[in-house]
Amino acid sequence: MGKLVKRVMFDDMYAIGRNESWFSDMAKKGLHLKKFGRIFIYFEKGKSKETKYRIDMIKEAPSQEQLDVYQACGWDIVTNNGNLYVFSADEKAGATELHTDPIVQGFSLSELNKRLRINLIITSIAMLLFLGMIFSIYFLTNEPFLYMIKSQFVQQMLLVIVELYVFYSVIRNYVAIRNLRESLLQGKTINHKEDYRKARVVGGILLGLVLSMALFTILIPLVDIAKSKDYTLPEANTNLPIVRLADIEQNPKLVRETGYTDNEVDWANRVRYDWSLLAPIQYEIYEHGIIKGEMWSDKSGEYSPSIITRYYKLIFGDMAENLTLDLINRHVWRDNIEIKEVNNLKLDKIYIAEDGSRKQIFAYLDNRVIHVTYYGKKKMEDIIPFVSEKLGSYQE
Amino acid sequence: MTYTGNPMTEAMYYILLALMNPNHGYQLMAAIDQVSNGRIKMGPGTLYGVLTRLQKDGLIVILNDDGRRKTYVITEAGKVALRAEYKRLKDMVQDGILVEEI
């Protein structure tokens, strides 16, 4: 047996005339069809030969008697894929054409046609559900931009494209057989020498694009996992986009108060770093302290201020305003809290919201967004300069 | 798809005709060749396509299947369909007699 050579089935497997023509041209190059799959076609290397190929839809597996009749007429069975059988004949042997009646051949495709139509209907329903699910995530949420940068938005969109490609191939299958059947029933014979090159090039380009997208889709979560990390916030100075509690409190008696510890990470004093395609730098940083001997204003216990900083660096600066508004929507949850805009020369915009000892600042500059939540006795006016200074001058 | 009385294709007509006598695959082709005076060269794909379809429509049945080969024969329904088609063709030829006078 000669060496097997593999080729990708770029065209539709049901493009019967084009595939027959392709197989014949391959035989001329000494590559003789061996196996016929949905994705790969196998050829056996040998001598160049002028061979005719015919792809025939046979409902039930042909009996030996049937194959003998085919052979007596000059047609040898090569291979099959499901109900699609491929026969070959020597071009010079003058075999009787496999199908001498296009209408009968058209009838033989009725069942496949029906099956592909059902396939298309089911896939369409599944596709609608899938798209509905993906888009409802964005339409039903109150914070679409926050969701977009937090979740794997780009990955989901790539997945949509891959799904659309699958849908496209199902449609292509159906249209190929439907058109072929109709033209046969009108008495037109199949063009066994139909040009296949263009369809293969177009199919190849499309498949290549979709496969690279699929690969990309697989890589994104891996990058995310590799890049994201949690660690305890160092007590010393860091180059993080945060305002330190010590800077706000200005009290030498402030010490760190440790919280729940897991995997050697102190959850009350922690840095969470995350990555996504739309926001390649994302921080969520918690800091918690206590001042011994000092009480909260309502005497509810020892004074223990804390600060949470969220920082996002976006790919598209145009998203900064929307992300800021989404953050406000997410984190200012009481209706009676007034959200005020503060004029500031250093930053593009600053919004503040105050609710007792909980003070929140939302700000952005170009493509960087910051959200600071401070629980403590210091006044909003004391904190704003720190935030504006930090965001204005922060260099990674 | 059942036979609805539409005009038969040539292949269907000749196979029904040939199956007035029980017959099997290869011989059937030879019989058609003979009955059509060599005018019809039927491809094997067409032959088996028609056999499958006629069988499904109940116009022919398998008379005998010894595992090696199947012998087919026309059914009563097949004969009715064949006669109807024969009459249609005859009428057509008769109507076409005009052509001879041109």
TrEMBL record, chain A:
The chain crosses the membrane at residues 118-141, 153-171, 201-223. Keywords: Membrane, Transmembrane, Transmembrane helix. Pfam families: DUF2812. It comes from the Bacteria. InterPro entries: DUF2812. This is DUF2812 domain-containing protein. It comes from Desulforamulus aeronauticus DSM 10349.
Automatic annotation (TrEMBL), chain B:
It comes from the Bacteria. This is Transcriptional regulator PadR-like family protein. SUPFAM superfamilies: Winged helix' DNA-binding domain (SSF46785). The lineage of its organism: Bacteria, Bacillati, Bacillota, Clostridia, Eubacteriales. Residues 20-83 form the Transcription regulator PadR N-terminal domain. It comes from Desulforamulus aeronauticus DSM 10349. It holds the Pfam family PadR.
